[in-house]
Each structure stands twice: as structure tokens, then as C-alpha cells.
Specification:
Largest sheet: 5 strands, mixed
Order of helices and strands: HHHHHHHHHHHHHEHEHEEE
CATH class of the largest domain: Mainly Alpha
Strand content: 5-15%
Low-confidence stretches: none
Structural class: alpha+beta
CATH architecture of the largest domain: Up-down Bundle
Radius of gyration: 27 Å
Mean pLDDT: 82
Shape: globular
CATH superfamily of the largest domain: ABC transporter type 1, transmembrane domain
Length: 428
């Protein structure tokens, strides 16, 4: 039997680099376009700030030193209307460049990721074909299927999505740090002081969760093996009266798998809660310098928003004033996008989080149902609504460049964005 060896980190990196050959151009193009998109995104607030504060407001121009000789502020103040048109044109141009960059980035990323994962699958399949019969005898089929399917997808997600996001985030931090230092270096130092703390917290968290993810992945492989063996050998199981034994065995593995994911969920909850705590501490540190802090939020800040836990912690400190400005809730924007009313005078509206454990009971209630953050729930909701007098539609990233609309949940394939809302209305 072949001996199993654990690859070092360097060997793993080398293997990934080998399979990335032939796709480097696509990934390099995606990275450059992502940087350009980030730069354009950072440019728009600077244009607006300069226009409002320095040109219309008459304040001192808050510009980097190399730009001050190039921009005639006094002349612009003398002709504010003309400059408003220029500023509006610059914002539109930046938005157009962003759209082109996002399109090109996604096209390059899609081509690169598919080329990468195809090479990985071909190499894995070829390797398995060359392994001895003894190796196949010693390894369960379900476990091999697990390695060739979900594990390959995990590697693709890491290389093609998460690694790209890391590169984009590093560039984002460097770019915005430079802008902050140019505007107010003291305030920038206060904000940037929390980055090492965040990095340390992330390092500790990922060190703890990586082993648990591995255990959960192995448990999923065992569960898949158990299912595969029972489906292929169902006649043998029945012939020898082993139904109860196999049911108990499956239940044991399923309970173990579920317990591991519950523990993972607990760790993720601790991590995200600590993130909200650090953000609130950063906000209070800036407030203590005598400055005001504004936090932008998608939708309405009182509905499942990151703002809420930060608001609670800042208010709990008892020495800061907090003003909350309402926004347009996502489900109202979705109803407008679908050109549908949310409800009728005699029917209630139910707002349900997508991960709510009692979603089946909630769907049975009368009236309109709104499922928020429901990107992974489309298939489940579609199955629960079969045969019921409801119409269900889903909108992802409503009002954003990545917006997508599904008039029928049966058309939704796979998990979608976290920013997905399902609208369920009674027919008639």
C-alpha cells in the first residue's frame, strides 16, 4: 500500500503555482482591474469633498502637496457652476471606469478560475487512475468522491476568490491609509493603531478554526461514504436485516458532523462579535480626538445591519451622542425593483432572517413574507412553498452593479450573495 505523506507548506504552494500556469495572465489582469476599481472608488469621495468643502464652502483645499499647484482653487471658486459640471462629469467618468473594471475583473477571474480548476481536476483524476488496487481497497469511495468534488471546490474558492480578496484588501488598506495620512496624520495614526490588533485576532482565530474545519471536512467524507455504501448495497442491507444498524450508524456520523458545524458556528459568532467590538473601540477612539464619525450602511441601519452592535456599544459607553439617519430597507427596494406592492390592508408583513431555524413555521403564517440575507435558502424555500398559493421572487444585490433578479425560485442555482432578499406574496 502506498504510504501517505503530508506535504509541507512550501510543497503545497508549489503545487498550486504549478496548476496556475497558463492562467497567470487572467489572474494578473483581474488583480490590476481590481486595483483600478478600488482607486476609482476612493476617488469619488475625494472629488465630492473637495467640491463641497473647498470650492463651494470656501475652506482651505485639503489636497496632497503635488496636486495643489495643478488645481487653480481661486479660479474654480469664481466659477462654481462650471466646476460643478466638471465635478459631476468626473464622478460619472469614475463610475464608468469602475463598471468596466468590474466587468473585466469578473471575466478574467472566471476564465482563470475555470482553467485552474480544470487542470486540478484533470491532474487529480489522472493521479487516482495510476494508484494501485490496494490503495483503492483501503480508501472508501465516498471519501474519494469528497476529495474530488467539495475539496477541489474549496481550493478553487481559496485561490480564485479569497486570495484575490486578500490582495485587494491589502491594496485597499495601503491606498486609504495614504489618503488618511495626507488629510490628517494624527487621526490616521489613531485609526491605523487597531490594524495590528485585528491582524492578531484574525491569526489566533484562523489558527483555532483551521483544525476544526479539517475535522468537519473529514466527518463530511465519512458521512458521504456511509451514504454511498448504503445506496449501492441497499439490497444486501435488506437481505441481512441490517436496516436498524445502518440507520444508527448513519445517525451517529450525522450527529458528529452536525456537532462539529455547530462548534464552527459558535467560533464564527465569537469572531464576528469581537470584530464589532474592535470597530466600536476604533470609533470611540476617533471620537475621543474631538472628531465626528459617520458610518455608511446598506439599506436601513436598524435592520440586520453591522451598524446596530456598534451603535449599542457606543451608546453603552454613555459619553457620546449618536444620531441615526434612516435609509431605504432592502425589502422596500426589492419591492420597487419588482414593481410589486408589499402587502394589502388586511394582510400583515413578516420579516424573517434567512438563517432563522423556524422558517418553515414562519412561511405558514398569513400575509407577505420577506426573507433577508437569504442567498443560501432559495432551494429550501422553493421546496417548502410547493403546492401552496404563493409567488416567490428573489433579488440579489438590489441597486448595486451585481444586481440579479429571479422571477421564479426554481431558476436559482446554487448559493447566492449574502445580500439576497426573497419576497413571498399570497396569490389572488
Amino acid at each position: 500500500m502506498e504510504s501517505q505523506t503530508k506535504l509541507s507548506r512550501r510543497e503545497k504552494t508549489g503545487m498550486i503555482v504549478r496548476y496556475l500556469r497558463g492562467c497567470w495572465g487572467f489572474f494578473a489582469g483581474a488583480v490590476v482591474l481590481a486595483w483600478m476599481n478600488t482607486a476609482c472608488n476612493a476617488l469619488v469621495p475625494q472629488i465630492i469633498s473637495f467640491t463641497v468643502d473647498s470650492v463651494l464652502g470656501g475652506g482651505p483645499p485639503d489636497l496632497p502637496g503635488f496636486l495643489r499647484p495643478l488645481i487653480p482653487v481661486d479660479q474654480l471658486r469664481a466659477e462654481p457652476l462650471s466646476f460643478l459640471w466638471l465635478a459631476a462629469g468626473a464622478v460619472v467618468l469614475a463610475a464608468a471606469v469602475r463598471g468596466v473594471c468590474i466587468y473585466g475583473m469578473r471575466i478574467n477571474l472566471a476564465k482563470g478560475s475555470e482553467g485552474f480548476v480544470k487542470g486540478l481536476r484533470d491532474g487529480l483524476y489522472s493521479h487516482i487512475q495510476r494508484l494501485s488496487f490496494a490503495w483503492h481497497t483501503a480508501h472508501a469511495t465516498g471519501d474519494i468522491i469528497q476529495r474530488c468534488t467539495s475539496d477541489v471546490e474549496v481550493i478553487r474558492t481559496f485561490v480564485c476568490n479569497q486570495l484575490m480578496e486578500v490582495v485587494r484588501t491589502v491594496f485597499l488598506i495601503v491606498l486609504y491609509s495614504s489618503i488618511m495620512v495626507a488629510m490628517n496624520w494624527r487621526l490616521a495614526m489613531v485609526s491605523l493603531a487597531f490594524i495590528p490588533i485585528s491582524l492578531l485576532a484574525s491569526w489566533v482565530f484562523y489558527g483555532k478554526i483551521s483544525t476544526r474545519f479539517k475535522a468537519a471536512d473529514e466527518a463530511e467524507g465519512e458521512l458521504t461514504t456511509c451514504t454511498q455504501e448504503n445506496l449501492t448495497g441497499v439490497r444486501v442491507v435488506r437481505a441481512f436485516g441490517r436496516e436498524k444498524f445502518e440507520i444508527d450508524r448513519f445517525g451517529e456520523k450525522n450527529d458528529h458532523f452536525s456537532a462539529l458545524w455547530v462548534e464552527l458556528g459558535r467560533l464564527l459568532s465569537v469572531y464576528w462579535a469581537s470584530g464589532a467590538f474592535l470597530t466600536a473601540a476604533q470609533v470611540m477612539a476617533v471620537l475621543d480626538t474631538g472628531k465626528d464619525v459617520a458610518m455608511l450602511n446598506l439599506g436601513d441601519p436598524s435592520l440586520y445591519a453591522t451598524y446596530s452592535p456598534i451603535q449599542e456599544r457606543v451608546l453603552a459607553a454613555g459619553r457620546y451622542e449618536v444620531i441615526t439617519i434612516p435609509g431605504v430597507p432592502s425589502f422596500c427596494a426589492v419591492a420597487a425593483r419588482l414593481n410589486r406592492s408589499l402587502t394589502k390592508p388586511h394582510l400583515p408583513v413578516h420579516i424573517i432572517p434567512g438563517g432563522y431555524p423556524g422558517v418553515e413555521e414562519a412561511l405558514a403564517a398569513p400575509g407577505t413574507k420577506v426573507l433577508m440575507k437569504a442567498g443560501k435558502e432559495a432551494a429550501r424555500v422553493h421546496a417548502l412553498l410547493k403546492g401552496r398559493p404563493y409567488t416567490a421572487q428573489m433579488v440579489t444585490a438590489c441597486g448595486l452593479p451585481a444586481e440579479a433578479v429571479w422571477e421564479d425560485l426554481s431558476q436559482v442555482e446554487g448559493a447566492k450573495s449574502y445580500f439576497s432578499t426573497i419576497l413571498i406574496r399570497e396569490e389572488g
